[in-house]
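The data are quoted verbatim for reference:
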Amino acid sequence: MSELTLGDMYSRFTRYAWRYEGRDVYSVGGEEDRIATFLRGEALPRKTRENNGWIATVEDVRARGAAIGRVRVVGRPVTDYTRFEFAAYPDNVAAGEDVQAIAREALDPAWAGVPDFWLFDDTTVFVQHFDQDGQFLGAEQAHDVAPFVAIRELLLGQTVAAGAFDLSNFPRQRTAAVGPPPPLNLPATARG
């Protein structure tokens, strides 16, 4: 029997899928034209299930009664890519994705060691790998799910909806930083 892939999981989870998105820049193939449109100050074309695979995935997840969401960590200075993502998030939210945000400055510095990951139903986690420019290199299943569940629990209630997150004046959700994340037992690829 072959191992599950990250792509397999979007149709297999039953309760929720949740992403920790901690990079300031991502290089996603196929987004170049949309980013250029945004940087020219033009309105972004709407993402729909007909023209965007992610929107179709989100709508399918919601149609089967499961939840899907992410928390986006926002650093300073705010990158053009982050501004682009926030301009595009309303379509994700309209499709049913719960997109939350938190300022990096609200997190303990130890959070810098937390990789992007997807957590499914508190039972399965995939750590995502990126190069220094944000190009996705792949995902690897981590077998110790507990610290990733703890990360999600630490952040729940500490974030704000992406639509309410002011990129020019970060809202203060807390008076003190979110404490350090739990130690992570990462797959070998993520450590090296």
